[in-house]
Amino acid sequence: MMPDGCPPEEVMVPQHVKPQNVADMRPLTLIDTLEFYDVPQILTAKDATGTNYLCTLFNHTDEACQYIGVQISEPRLMAFVGGQLDLRDAYLHPEVDNGLYLVETRHETLTATTLLQPESLTEKMLPAHGYYYDADDLSADHLSATDTYQLEVPAHDRITFSTLISRMGWQASSLRKNIGKIAVL
């Protein structure tokens, strides 16, 4: 759920960034807030077709928060969350044409309202150079020291699963197998 109102800010929205007609608007569902300071600064969302959006706040008023949002694949989103992708590069070099949007929150709704082009983005809209997300910066209140997951892995996928475990840097000894189908980390 998004905040009802956002604190005022002096950033002016460029004239070329105006909402299109209602048919072009895409309702989004908030998936995660990655950075929060008074209001969500960086968030992830999905549209009705399951497309991921990475959104960064650039303007907020009493009526709305405005973000630039980029459609982003799951691997590229994971690269950002893993600290391997510069946030600015995600917007300047989108994976797909017509993948940049003005995203707004109004009355607790999140909507992609206007299609943007990379060349139309102003410096005030873009994040600073060299911002790499660092989940380690989250406070200890939000993270537990260890997490336990239970996964069902069919026998024919064990090799793929074992490869995934090793690529994640986990020790094979941390994997306990139970009767063919269940793996507990």
Give the secondary structure arrangement, pairings included.
Elements: E1 26-37, E2 39-46, E3 52-60, E4 65-72, H1 74-81, H2 87-92, E5 100-106, E6 109-116, E7 150-152, H3 158-167, E8 176-178, E9 182-184
Antiparallel strand pairs: 1-2, 1-6, 2-3, 3-4, 4-5, 5-6, 7-9, 8-9
Q: What is the overall number of helices?
A: 3
Strand order of the largest sheet: 1-2-3-4-5-6
Number of strands: 9
Low-confidence stretches: 1-13, 15-23, 139-145, 176-185
What gap, in angstroms, lies between the N and C termini?
31 Å
Largest sheet: 6 strands, antiparallel, barrel
Order of helices and strands: EEEEHHEEEHEE
Shape verdict: globular
Integer-rounded radius of gyration: 19 Å
The domain count comes to 2
Q: State the helical fraction.
A: 10-25%
- Strand percentage lies at 25-35%
Which class best fits the helix and strand makeup? mainly beta
Mean pLDDT: 77
What is the gist of this entry?
This protein has 185 residues and is mainly beta. It has helices spanning 74-81, 87-92, 158-167; strands spanning 26-37, 39-46, 52-60, 65-72, 100-106, 109-116, 150-152, 176-178, 182-184.
Characterization of this structure:
The protein is mainly beta and 185 residues long. The chain has two domains: 22-134, no CATH class; 147-184, no CATH class. 13% of the residues lie in helices and 33% in strands. It has three helices and nine strands. The chain has helices spanning 74-81, 87-92, 158-167; strands spanning 26-37, 39-46, 52-60, 65-72, 100-106, 109-116, 150-152, 176-178, 182-184. The strands form two sheets. Strands 1-2-3-4-5-6 form a six-stranded antiparallel β-barrel. The longest helix has 10 residues, at 158-167. The radius of gyration is 19 Å and the shape is globular. Residues 1-13, 15-23, 139-145 and 176-185 have low confidence and may be disordered.
